[in-house]
Automatic annotation (TrEMBL):
Alphabetic keyword roster: Metal-binding
Protein name: Phosphoesterase
Domain Calcineurin-like phosphoesterase intervals: 1-148
EC number: 3.1.4.-
Similarity comment text for this entry: Belongs to the metallophosphoesterase superfamily. YfcE family.
Listed GO MF terms: hydrolase activity; metal ion binding
Cofactor(s) needed for function: a divalent metal cation
Source organism (scientific name): Lactiplantibacillus pentosus (Lactobacillus pentosus)
Keyword Metal-binding: yes
Amino acid sequence: MKCLVVSDSHGDRDIVVRLLETYRDQVDAIFHCGDSELSDDDPLLKDMYIVQGNMDFDTHMPIEVQTTVDDVTVYMTHGHVFGVNMGLDHLLANATAAHARLAFFGHTHQLGVERREGVLVLNPGSITFPRGEFARIGGTYAIVTTSSTAIDVQYYNRRMQAVPELKFHFEN
């Protein structure tokens, strides 16, 4: 399974359009981890899984999504409800309860990826307002590729260029 993960676009509809136009036919799914600030009725939403962030005021967006794409279970939330600024334990507990192999979240605007208790936990960073160690790159998103033996993660910048130092490989 190959998917694109983006978060915290904060009203930058143009970058979401560019990502969809570029990747729609190259990935199995597109996940937006919240704070899109798009309206519930925006036609872009039909092309992706999306959750409500703390800056999304249309309450029809779900707080969390659990789905399976090509036999890979994914759990996604924005993270604000689960206190991701203080740690990932609550998020990980929900992902584990959902039997997820992948857990995606946003909110912190800081990219990060780690494997915990058999679950790949990933924050793509903010595509619009990045923070933290890699803010110098500008906005980021991630492409996650799974196989029966491994998970590969490659982060990209807003210019849709791979960031060489942000490539990760996790064996199953």
